[in-house]
Design brief:
Keywords: Differentiation, Endonuclease, Hydrolase, Lipid degradation, Lipid metabolism, Meiosis, Membrane, Metal-binding, Mitochondrion, Mitochondrion outer membrane, Nuclease, Spermatogenesis, Transmembrane, Transmembrane helix. Residues 136-163 form the PLD phosphodiesterase domain. InterPro entries: PLD-like_dom (IPR025202), PLD_domain (IPR051406), PLipase_D/transphosphatidylase (IPR001736). It contains seven helices and seven strands. It starts with a helix and ends in a 20-residue tail after the last helix. It has a seven-stranded mixed beta sheet with strand order 1-7-6-5-2-3-4, with helices on both faces. It has helices at 2-25, 46-50, 64-73, 89-100, 121-126, 161-166, 177-193, and strands at 34-38, 78-83, 104-109, 130-133, 143-147, 151-155, 169-174. With 213 residues, it is an alpha/beta fold. It has one domain: Endonuclease Chain A (Endonuclease, Chain A). Bound molecules: zinc ion.
Length: 213
């Protein structure tokens, strides 16, 4: 009996490792421009985030969220984020992972949506990531990311589980340096604009620690 159990167990483990290796062999889509449409089917993102095979019951194939994660996790030097709302735990984990690898993270968010239920902003700040927010009456409504100052990720998608799993959204990944530079310039402008030393008044948002790190 135990032989059968062992054989089945080994078989499952073998399949998990084989599947993982096969998926890893898939040409990394991190070299060309692409469009990712949402909603994303629910798949396991553990392999991408932990970098190890996973045998959990969730499907382990490709998904829109998986493709977005691959693009974000490709960062080696810097990740500049300009997001209206950020509550996706998988994307939050990816950003913390990059931060721990030494990637310079800068995150700009909308002040009114920082406290959204499940917001990643608190955990990200606790991890030591720099977060700045607007002090405007209008929304900081962008949803773009710049990876290594070379790849632009932009579109309609808020980085929330609700949007990822239920909304029709588009995300465009572009490797056009001229276009990336324009977004970079705008990011630098916003980053400087939201520098706490430039704050000209104190709104309800500034009372609890303006910036980390
Ligand atoms: Zn899994």
């Amino acid at each position: 009996m135990w032989r059968v159990v062992l054989a089945v167990g080994l078989g499952a483990a073998f399949e998990a490792v084989l599947g993982w290796l096969l998926r890893r062999r898939r040409p990394a889509s991190a070299t060309a421009s692409e469009v990712i449409f949402f909603p994303s089917r629910v798949t396991c993102t553990e392999e991408l985030l932990a970098g190890a095979p996973c045998a959990c019951p969730l499907p382990h194939g490709e998904s829109a969220l998986g493709r977005l994660l691959v693009r974000v996790l490709a960062a080696r030097r810097s990740l500049d984020l300009c997001l209206f709302a950020f509550s996706s735990p998988q994307l939050g984990r990816a950003v913390v992972l990059l931060h721990r690898r030494g990637v310079r993270i800068r995150l700009v968010v909308d002040a009114d949506y920082m406290a959204l239920r499940g917001s990643q902003i608190g955990p990200l700040r606790k991890a030591g990531i720099q977060v700045r927010h607007d002090q405007d009456s209008g929304y900081m409504h962008h949803k773009f990311a710049i990876v290594d100052k070379k790849v632009l990720i932009t579109g309609s998608l808020n980085w929330t589980t609700q949007a990822i799993q239920t909304n029709r959204e588009n995300v465009l990944v572009v490797e056009d340096q001229a276009l990336v530079n324009i977004f970079l310039e705008e990011f630098e402008k916003i980053w400087e604009n939201y520098n706490p030393v430039n704050y000209t008044f104190f709104s309800k948002h500034e009372k609890t620690g303006i910036e980390n790190g």
